[in-house]
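Annex B. Sample input.
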Amino acid sequence: MRLFRKVRWKRVLLVAGLVALIGTVPYAWVLISSAPYRFKAEDVPETPVALVLGAGLRDGRPTPFLAGRLDVAADLFRRGKVKVLLVSGDNSTVDYDEPGAMRRYLVEHGVPERFIVADYAGLDTWDSCTRAKRIFGVDRLTVVSQVTHLPRAVTLCRRAGVDAYGVGHETWDDYRGTTVQQYVRESVAAYKALWEGVVVRRDPKFLGPQEPGVIQALDA
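Annex B, continued. Sample output.
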């Protein structure tokens, strides 16, 4: 009986170890594949467009995490690192207009409205990246998100066929507990990224006609 218990626990530990190892593979993939393309604002290469990913509203205004992303994008615009800001978020109901709120915030913080383009069907990271390429005709961009989310965002944009770099908003000092939760969430979300970006490469939930907004804003 004692020998049986030893064998059983060895099997349990072996299985647990294998599960833990397999669980780290997708997250390691997004970290490693995106590492050469993640920068600080002062160091990122110039690109025509910054893709700012949505992160929720509170009473119709950007949440602190979304406001942080928008502040980073506005800083990139002022530095001349990007020329146009493509704000991508959820507008699936009349009462919830994430891109509209993002646009208003940027205008309030000094970005001319003619250089802001809204994608109202950026329902998740993969959709935002693929729509930037297929609907808005963007081939090269800087994706803006939190530092925690940036590896997945850069990886998925590059898997969508975009020459993508990334700049992140750092939240560790102000939101340490939430930041830890975000890292845990990203380790799980990496499975979804692997599925969408490598295995199935699905279409975005909404395609629709080509949108000329980015090209027109660049011409302006």
